[in-house]
Amino acid sequence: KKCIGVLTSGGDCPGLNAVIRGVVKSSNQLGYDCVGFLQGYEGLHDPVRYKTLTPKNTTGILNQGGTILGSTNKGRFAATVGVSDRVEIDPELLAGVKTTVEQLGIEGLVCVGGDGSLAIAQQFHEYGIPVVGVPKTIDNDLSSTAFTFGFDSAIECATNALDRLHTTAASHGRIMVLEVMGRHAGWIALHAGIAGGGDVILLPEIPWTWENVCHKVLSRESQGKQFTLVVVAEGAALPDGRGVGKEQSGRQAQLGGIGQIVAEEIERRLQRETRVCVLGHLQRGGAPTTFDRVLATQYGAHAVRLIVEGKLGEMVCYQPPDIMSVPITEAVNQLRQVDPNSSAVQAARALGISFGNSTA
Ligand code: F6P
C-alpha cells in the first residue's frame, strides 16, 4: 500500500499536532498509510524509529501543544543551504535515510520545521529523497509565507502577559519590561506590543537609543502616567550594536538576556523602579489558537496534496487568501523581517507607541 511519512523538527510550537492530524486524516482519505518518525530527522536512521499513524491513534490531538512525535533541535543532520555558508549533511546519513524511505515504501515525507529544518529537507530533496516542507516557527520569520503556524499562539500568550503586567505596573507606578522571543525578527514583539498596549517596542529591525526610550517614559509621566510597558524582542540589538539574544540558545538568552539589561539601564538612568519578565518558553507551549489550528490543518492537508500531485521539493505556504506552495529553497534563503515602514509599524507610531528611534 502507498505510504506517506511525517516528522516534526526543531523547536516545538503550538499546532504541530494539528499538522500531523491533518496529514494523517487527509492521506487516509486518499488511501495512503501514514508513518510518523520520532525525534525529528533523528528517527530516520540508525536506529530507525517510527510509529504507524492512523485516524484512530491521532484522535484528540488537534488542540494539544507540543508534538506527539517528539522533536530534535540541531541533531546529527544540522545543515544550511545558503550559497556561501552551505553546511552539508554527512553523505552516509543521506544514504541511510534514502534506504529507510525506500524500505518503508514512502512516496513523500512531510518535514515540518523552521529554516534550519527546511534546509535539511532541501538537501534531502537534492539527494533524491522525496520531501515536502511545512513552515513552522513562532517567530514568523520565514519568507514566502505570510504566517507560520505557532505565531498566533505565541502572540496570544505574550499579549496575555502584557495585560497582566499592565495592571501590576499601574498599581505600583513601575516600568515593566517584557522580553519576548524572536531571535532574528520582531514579529512577536510588534504584534503583542500593539495588542497588549505596549508603550515602547524594541525590535531587531529598528535601531534605537536609550535616550529615546527614557524620553518616552518621562513624556508619559508628564501626562500623568506613572507606569510604562516596554516590549523587547530577544534578538533586538543594544544601541552599542551588541546582540544579546541573537546567536544563543533559548536557555542562554534567559540567563540575563536583553530584557534584564534594558530594565537595569532604564532604572540606572531614570531612578525609577523597573522590573523585567522573560516570557521564554511559555510562548511555545500549550494549546494552539483557533487561527493556528486552521492554518496547521490546511498546511497538513496541502502537504499531502503536493505529494500526491508529485510536487516534491515544495513547501506549503499561506499567501492570503490562498494556501499554495513554493520551492523550499525560496523559503530558506532569506529571513522575513518586520518592515519599519509597514502599516502595522505606522499604525503603532500613530498611536504614540515608541520604537526608541525618535522622540516622537
Ligand atoms: O525559533 C524559535 C525560538 O523559539 C526562538 O524565538 C528562540 O530564540 C529559540 O527558538 C529558543 O530555542 P531553544 O530554547 O530550543 O534553544
UniProtKB/TrEMBL annotation:
Marked site positions, Important for substrate specificity: G116
Residues reported in the UniProt entry to bind substrate: T137, I138, D139, R174, M181, G182, R183, E234, R275, H281, L282, Q283, R284
Binding-site residues, ATP: G11, K74, G75, G114, D115, G116, S117
A Pfam family assignment: PFK
Top-level EC class as recorded in UniProt: transferase
Domain Phosphofructokinase: 4-307
EC number from the UniProt entry: 2.7.1.11
NCBIfam families, A to Z: PRK03202.1 (NF002872)
Role played: Catalyzes the phosphorylation of D-fructose 6-phosphate to fructose 1,6-bisphosphate by ATP, the first committing step of glycolysis.
HAMAP family: Phosphofructokinase_III
Protein name: ATP-dependent 6-phosphofructokinase
Organism of derivation: Novipirellula artificiosorum
